[in-house]
Design a protein that fits this description.
The structure is a single chain. With 242 residues, the chain is of the alpha/beta class. Helix content is 36%, strand content 24%. Helix 6 crosses helix 9. The chain starts with a helix and ends with a helix. The relative contact order is 0.14.
Amino acid sequence: MAMMDHIKPKRVLIIGGGDGCVLHEVLKHDSVEKVDHVDLDGDVVKVCKEYFPWGNAWDDPRVSLYIDDGAKFVKEQADNSYDVVIQDSSDPTTWDEAKGGVIELPSSVLYAREHFEHIYRCLDTNGVFIMQAESFHFPSELDGISSWRKQALELGFVNVKYGTLTITSYIGGQIGFLLMRTSNDESSCKKHVKARFDAMVEAGKTTSYYHPRLQTSAFDLPLWVENSIYGEEREQMLEGEE
């Protein structure tokens, strides 16, 4: 989604995604010149290199792999370093059955305001940020979605939208993402997205899940979810789509 949302992504940062699947998909885009991939767990990357069919993705000369803390890495990057940032992180919180409450996990730092500030800073003028944003089936996670979206808007991101994916291996069979931009000056139109996708397919770089219609349909949510995430903004968003 993020790669197609940007009109010509050249410099990409992937935070997390140690299995390499996101990296594999990013490299299908011919415009890409540089990918920095940072993941905290080197053992995960090592195993996936050996056993996953896309394990050679890290061998691409455009890729630099960093085994490091994602929040720390972003903080150290220069302003305007990337066109697209993709955060494929693990869950920021979990439920403590014994104490009956939510507890923070190590990835929670990737959802903090300071981290969002550095993401915004290191993105270029027409930059795109996409992040793993949990499932809307669980009340605590739905609250998190609304909170992260509000945080992003306060920091200057625009067009911050929650999209949904069907994924049977995840609890509830659904997980979502937040897609946002640093400005609305340049974004891909439907015609441009389809042309790029068709060129990828012709070059043998096919996908198993993504197709161009998902660029819009992934953001069509159940009414109760839209009301929870967008509130009064929902009507304004609908008017803008007409």
